[in-house]
Amino acid sequence: MNSENIQKELNFKAIRSSGAGGQHVNKTSSKIELTFDLENSISLSDAQKELLKTKLSSKLTKENVLILFCEETRSQHRNKDLAIKRFLSLIKTNLIRPKKRRLTKPSKTSIKRKAENKQRTSVKKALRKKPKLD
């Protein structure tokens, strides 16, 4: 994955930020909307696209477009940088393939240790009972 090539495929749109802020909020477009078309991406291989589609299925639109918003700061440029950082970290973390789990047998010593532990607890609980008066 080449982050420089992927950044060239990103589309940005500046929108007016919501919330309180007085008269200034009505004039400036500081909120950033980042869109990335996963289906038509050239920088990602087909295997990477399929992996991202499965892992990011809840964040993708029906057309497989990823949309991120950033309105943390009052600066449009800082919001753009934050959105790019979030996007790249999201892609990097979701491109990691999980290791396949190998089935293993418990060792003989662990089986023996477990049996001894069970025996100890059963004796401990047996001693808690009232004695029989026969």
UniProtKB/TrEMBL annotation:
GO MF entry, a single one: ribosome binding
InterPro entries: Pep_chain_release_fac_I, Pep_chain_release_fac_I_sf
Regions of compositional bias (Basic residues) in chain numbering: 121-134
Superkingdom classification of source: Bacteria
Pfam (any one): RF-1
Annotated GO biological process: rescue of stalled ribosome
Keyword line: Hydrolase
Domain Prokaryotic-type class I peptide chain release factors: 16-32
Location of the region described as Disordered in the Swiss-Prot/TrEMBL record: 98-134
SUPFAM superfamilies named among the record's database cross-references: Release factor (SSF75620)
Family: Belongs to the prokaryotic/mitochondrial release factor family.
UniProt name for this protein: Aminoacyl-tRNA hydrolase
Organism: Polaribacter filamentus
Lineage: Bacteria, Pseudomonadati, Bacteroidota, Flavobacteriia, Flavobacteriales
